[in-house]
Amino acid sequence: GIGIIPNVELAADAALVVEGGVVVNENCQTSDPDIFAAGDCAAFQYKNELTRLESVQNAIDQAECAATNIAGEPKAYHPYPWFWSDQYDVKLQIAGLNRGYDSIVVRPGEREGAISHFYFKGNEFLAVDSMNDPRTYMVCKKLLETGKTISPEQAADPELQLKSLM
Fold it and tell me: Which pLDDT score, from 0 to 100, does residue 88 have?
């Protein structure tokens, strides 16, 4: 499937479970264990919520996971959502998903015009949106991938070198 509305008609006609996308388990298997799905049309559990990630990297990572499982080598898919977009003179980079946030910390970047928004649910670091702030984005992406964290107080402290949290 491509686009905002996943193309799930074939899956539905094949009597596969479809809920906002073709539902897959951690091995990218559908409700029929002999059929796999990956990419924009695949819906999977992420932080206890059925999720579709519409990004190139997700499609590549899921396809590799599905292929490995088809080849008989069990492998679970563990997504680390990240996205980017160039909008004229702004480079937007996102790590994580900000679903369910209850607070945002805004932190200026090191360069003029650079800024990042940190999303938290309580003290849980969920995501960062960085505009022209690639260093903050890269550190936060690594924090999320490795299960390390940053507190709202740390994110708000402009003197804190984020790299020290690695």
Answer: 92
